[in-house]
Amino acid sequence: MKHVEPPSPEPSTRIPLFMIGKDSRGNWVVQDQQGICGGLFVNRAEALKFAMFENGNRPQAVIMVPGVFELDMSRKTGSEHRQPSNAEQMRQVA
Q: What angle (nearest 5°) sits at the alpha carbon of residue 68, between those of residues 62 and 74?
């Protein structure tokens, strides 16, 4: 009997991966891998509760980050995420 692996899930059905850690001010930070969803929390329990709720209660999709982990709200998503044009790059350099 031949062993067949199930197909990989479609990108839209993948389990979101969440990272949890502490920022430089001692706040607990949660952020998904794409930088779309996250926040600051007063304690580890609340940060973990949020991450578990957002990922469908899947502990295997939560990563504890060692060291300092700052919340990054600068990422752009969807249609806003694009490469700058050559003119925009030149303005940034000047």
A: 80
Overall pTM surpassing 0.70 (yes/no): no
Q: What is the pLDDT of residues 61-83, one digit of tens each?
A: 999 999 999 999 887 655 444 44
CATH 1.10.10 fits 15-72, yes or no: no
pLDDT computed for residue 8 by the predictor: 55
Burial of 47 (0-12, 13-18, 19+ CB in 10 A): buried
| Spans of all domains in the chain | 15-72
Q: Please report the beta strands in the chain, taking only residues with DSSP state E, as ranges in sequence order.
A: 18-22, 28-32, 38-41, 62-68
